[in-house]
Specification:
With 240 residues, the chain is of the alpha+beta class. The chain has one domain. The chain contains nine helices and four strands. Strands 1-2-4-3 form a four-stranded mixed sheet. It is globular and about 55 Å long. Bound molecules: zinc ion (ZN). The site of zinc ion has 5 residues, from α4 and α7.
Length: 240
């Protein structure tokens, strides 16, 4: 892993991430066609932030693309394997501008670069193969392959686990700082997310784990490192 130095189990290579993300992205965009924001300040800002963060990231040669989907109820954003991003308009009021958006997009870009999607799929595939072997082989190969293909498709958009979320927070924090965005905004952003969840069920972007307090505490512990990156970036004139 870049930034965290953790090692990962992954049966796919980055070309697979690219191909898989691309294919799934086309399908999702088609489903959301009527809500796609094609021009205007929202989509311009999202693309500007993606460009700035991708430029300072450990980009393995992904094809970055970002779209905005108009859905005020959807407090969410995601990045598929290979760099295909969607931001729902429901998260924009919580971002409160470019730096807050950099928190969200830093986190999403980090998921893609850390290859959390295909790593999760690899674990599922390994489990599936293990089960197949254990269950003896009276099941036909074709049926097995069809199941696996269906699983792969589902997993691309499944929520990440707690460890992946915390790792994306960490890597994203460093990337936003390198891009010249003040990383202290990450703490403020997650506090606003917590407030938006209003004690009821958390919005989807949050629903997959670290509790708000754990998440904010982990980010605060990383702030000295992120601020050093931010100051170096600011000195180098990365900040615009
Ligand atoms: Zn996440």
């Amino acid at each position: 892993m870049p930034v965290t130095g953790r090692s990962q189990f992954n049966l796919f290579d980055t070309a697979d991430d690219l191909a898989l993300g691309k294919e799934t992205y086309v399908g999702v965009l088609k489903e959301s066609e009527g809500q796609l924001v094609r021009t205007g300040p929202e989509v311009e800002l999202v693309r500007k932030v993606v460009d700035r963060i991708a430029a300072v990231s450990d980009d393995p040669g992904f094809e970055w693309e970002a779209n905005v989907i108009r859905d005020p109820e959807m407090v969410n954003a995601w990045c598929m394997p290979g760099g295909k991003i969607a931001v729902y308009t429901g998260i924009l009021p919580i971002c409160q501008g470019e730096t807050g958006l950099a928190v969200v997009l830093g986190h999403e870009i980090a998921h893609a670069i850390a290859r959390h999607g295909t790593s999760r799929m690899s674990q599922a595939v390994a489990t599936q193969i293990g089960l197949e072997v254990a269950a003896a082989s009276d099941k036909r190969l074709a049926q097995y392959q069809a199941e696996l293909a269906a699983a792969v498709e589902l997993l691309v958009l499944m929520p990440f686990g707690r460890d992946d979320e915390l790792e994306a927070d960490h890597i994203g924090l460093i990337y936003m700082a390198r891009a010249g965005y003040d990383p202290r905004e990450a703490v403020a952003f997650w506090r606003r997310m917590a407030a938006a969840s209003g004690g009821g069920g958390p919005p989807e972007f949050l629903s997959t784990h670290p509790s708000n307090e754990n998440r904010i505490a982990a980010i605060e512990a990383l702030l000295p490192q992120a601020l050093a990156e931010y100051e170096a970036a600011t000195r180098a004139g990365t900040r615009k």
